[in-house]
Amino acid sequence: MKLTPRHIDEIRKLLQGRVLTDVPLSRFTSFRIGGPADLVAEPDRVETLAELLRYLHEEKIPRIILGSGTNVLFRDEGVRGVVVRTGSLTGLDVHANGSDDAAVRAAAGQPFPVVISKACKEGWSGLEELWGIPGSFGGAVATNAGAGGISVADRLISLKLLTDRGEELVLGRDDLEYGYRSLRLPADAVVVEGIARLRRGDRDAIESALEAARARRRGRQPSDRPSAGCVFKNPSPENPAGAIIDRLGFKGMTVGGAQVSPLHANFIVNLGNARARDVLELIETVRRTVKEKENIDLELEIRVMGGGRS
Fold first, then answer.
1. Do residues 96 and 212 both lie within one domain?
2. Tens of pLDDT along 241-272?
3. Can you give the pLDDT at residue 310?
4. Domain annotation covers residue 14
5. How many whole angstroms separate alpha carbon 27 and alpha carbon 42?
6. Could you give the CA distance from residue 134 to residue 145 in angstroms, rounded to a whole number?
7. How far apart, in whole angstroms, are the C-alpha atoms of residue 264 and residue 60?
8. What are the Cα distances from residue 115, in Å, to 45, 188, 195?
């Protein structure tokens, strides 16, 4: 359904003005790429998010949930409907109760690096290998972000979700189905909070693990240009996507304002004026060549969204 002035007015009232219309989505992604959205809404409370989801469902208005936008590419045509940003849903607590285990409760919009830093600073081990992964906690959960042989889902013990009708749903660890860079959630459910279990650790060992994680990324990943992180999932630990793309000679290849990073071949960077179509052309060229030369189907790790406007 097309968003009408009545819808916009009612959503404004519901969110007390935390609404932008016809705004470029390049403002909300680490890629700095993307056409306009009909409306961007940013609820600051779970209760308000529930009301918004219920309203959008009842009015049959399409919506996209967006965290920090660190692994997203929005098409140049933008998005029809509502983009719901969860960045204002913050909160972080560590509950130890004097035991060797701690339950770390984080809201969806809490920056994931802050979650890791707080846990490590207080001497809790289990997340240090994930240091350097950007974005929000909710985004890390939804994509089952990982590094160093572990993933977010390995540490989760429960998730709190909202359905598209605004109803709360709690899933325990046994209810979670996850795989490499994926977590299967109920259709149209939105992550609002998660609890991870960590173990008490030696602070020197934790700091050593953090430094090892920093060393893996230092100088190996481009940080001077906008990007969305790794573009493709690794076909296997022994044959990572970056190594495949590198040996096929793609480093430095440019289309328009987009470039395969000369530093890390599994990154595409925005040289300053990239359009989504530039990135998508590079992606298609890389995928086609890898299939032809290596007989490997590269699977996207970033999420490509939009294209529904007219």
1. yes
2. 999 999 999 999 999 999 999 999 999 999 99
3. 37
4. yes
5. 14
6. 10
7. 42
8. 19, 25, 11
E-strand stretches of 201-287: 227-230, 254-255, 258-260, 267-270
What is the reported pLDDT for 308?
53
**For range 229-243, the mean pLDDT:** 94
Q: Are 242 and 290 in contact (CB under 8 A)?
A: no
Which range is least confidently modeled, 44-53, 102-111, 148-157?
148-157
**What is the dihedral sign for C-alpha 220, 225, 228, 231?**
negative
192/259 same-domain check: no
Question: Which CATH number does the domain housing residue 67 bear?
Answer: 3.30.43.10
**Considering the entire predicted model, what is its pTM?**
0.91
Whether 177 and 106 share a structural domain: yes
**What's the CA gap between 256 and 14, in Å, rounded?**
41
Angle (CA) 214-286-272 rounded to 5° is 65
Number of domain units in the chain: 3
Give domain status of residue 222, yes or no.
Answer: no
Beta bridge partners of 95: 103
In a domain, 105, yes or no: yes
Residue 70, CB-side half-sphere exposure with 13 Å CA sphere: 22
User: Cα 140–141–142 angle (5° rounding)?
Assistant: 95
**Residues of the domain holding 192:** 92-217
Nearest Cα to 82, choosing from 16, 23, 136? 23
